[in-house]
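For anyone still unconvinced, we reproduce a single protein record, the chain in one-letter code, the fold tokenised, and leave readers to judge:
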Amino acid sequence: MKIISWNINGIRAVQRKGFLEWLYKEKPDILGLQEIKAKADQIPQELITPNGYYGYINSADRPGYSGTALYSKAKPKKIEYGFNIPKFDYEGRIISADFGDFIFLNIYFPNGKSGQIRLKYKMDFYDAALAYFDSLVKKGKHLIITGDVNTAHSSIDLARPKENEDISGFLPIERAWMDKLISHGYIDCFREFNKEPDNYTWWSQRSGARSRNVGWRIDYFFVSKNFRPHVKNCYHLTDVLGSDHCPIVLEVK
């Protein structure tokens, strides 16, 4: 089974850049999208339910902002939107799909760069997310967690760590939460297969950062420890354009 996650930075924008052609060529069993930036009634039907897929949209209340989408070849047993916490759920950041063998959580985590109020919102979201994950694992569920986490975990995960020590996305408090996530038994799938530097998933759109590979690894697949035996591979599709992020892939059996 091939599962893909991608922050597309606008579903209508990526449509114009060949998104559906890419989807039908890649043929993922499940695809999670973040930052769709559109209400459901603004999205063409072919993007809500592409041929061969069930489609689910969770838009933010604010127009042109945030939002997530999920496509799957198999119909989930259950779909849920959000954590049942209004201050987070109105931004359309979470879709969870129960496929029986595992729960797939597609999440667009907040960015904290706009100031202290937003950084606190991000950290509160982080804590709520971890509590939610733990509650599911305690029920015996297997989890696949994916999305744009908006934090580079360690120095290997961004091109210029020293220059970004005081920037949200690489702050000690954010990285400490990543440590906590892993200490709770959630596995960073990419690092199970690739320990090398210079592997990024997001590049600034300024100064030719992508062509120079001056980037950040802020998009992840995590699995609960009880699901690790099913993970076959995890990698990045860095050659796929259309967004300032690249898609990431998880292969499971």
Summary: Residues 2-252 form a domain with the Deoxyribonuclease I; Chain A fold (CATH 3.60.10.10).
